Amino acid sequence: MAFSSDRQSLIPSYLYSSSFTSKPLNLHKMASPSTTPAAAAASAPSGGFMIQAPSEPGKIEMYSSQFYAACTVGGILSCGLTHMAVTPLDLVKCNMQIDPAKYKSISSGFGVLLKEQGVKGFFRGWVPTLLGYSAQGACKFGFYEFFKKYYSDLAGPENAAKYKTLIYLAGSASAELIADVALCPMEAVKVRVQTQPGFARGLSDGFPKFVRSEGALGLYKGLVPLWGRQIPYTMMKFASFETIVEMIYKHAIPTPKNECSKPLQLGVSFGGGYIAGVLCAIVSHPADNLVSFLNNAKGATVGDAVKKIGVVGLFTRGLPLRIVMIGTLTGAQWGIYDAFKVFVGLPTTGGAAPAAEPIKA
Q: Is the sign of the CA dihedral 206, 209, 211, 213 positive or negative?
């Protein structure tokens, strides 16, 4: 296990690809203009050390508070906007899970909604969707970046490079554990508004009505199934994305990542995100059916859901639509997140990074 000061300078280069390429720097160049090279050399440490990412004017320093704040804002934009945009698909998916006899397929489901609720009905529940998934995205992406570096520091440079996939999995699981606590109340109201016509028009009347009916703790009735859905989903989302992107740069694109154009890098982010999203949908679908069932039926239990839906139904009911929705959603999320990172001067996510070089004494 390396000392913490060593870890801070060593670890990130194994897990992040950055345009802030670490280069050997002469210490006398870091001194003020009035400082002579001899004085600078005298004040320098005797041993060599490593510099991860020197700060540049107008750039955000990696792993600083500004870096984590930027990742948090990127998460808000990527999750909140995308989930709100696919509200019609989510609405049909939830109703297919709750009432498959009425909502038999994707096309007929849209037809039923259009006939009964009109075009406005396709966006029912968009406010709790926007707020809930914005809060979730802030925690998911912000804490993922934090935990990824934190667990890397604990592992040390050699183990961080060797077991990077395990670090991606642990970091994403830890982040989602927190993110779902932020999402759960809005998810509960959203499902009730979307699957019970007449319950409420939206968040403003649906939230207090839900609390009066279920109590404040009822907002978290679906937390454990939500963890069961979202934690495997997010672990797959981040770990598979990082691996897929690294493989694309290694095997499909002959040019090193830091020499690729930003549009190409963002295209890789979207493509890698879409593939990761398909895997996410399959892994997390049974728990998604449970969440929809529990938030729709007052006093229902997991056992009730399994009994009514069936084990096979948990894995298959609404799955094709969810694959389309989550694949598109995840691809768009990674595209927006990395586009925002590029906008503020940060590198895109994923891809192999060269190790920093030690400065010669």
A: negative
Residue 49's Cβ-count burial label (10 Å; 0-12, 13-18, 19+) is middle
Q: Give every CB contact of residue 245 below 8 A, 6+ residues apart in sequence.
A: 268, 269, 272, 349, 350, 351
Closest Cα to residue 202, out of 329, 37, 91, 347? 91
Residue 13: both structure tokens together? 């280069």
- Pick from 271, 263, 286, 247: which is nearest to 328 by CA? 271
CA angle 312, 172, 258 (to 5 degrees): 120
pLDDT tens for each residue of 80-133: 999 999 899 888 888 888 888 899 888 899 999 899 989 888 999 999 999 999
Q: Considering the entire predicted model, what is its pTM?
A: 0.75
Q: Two tokens at 95?
A: 């109703």
Q: Give Cα separations from 104 to 42, 191, 193 (angstroms).
A: 78, 19, 20
Euclidean distance between CA atoms 231 and 145, whole angstroms: 16
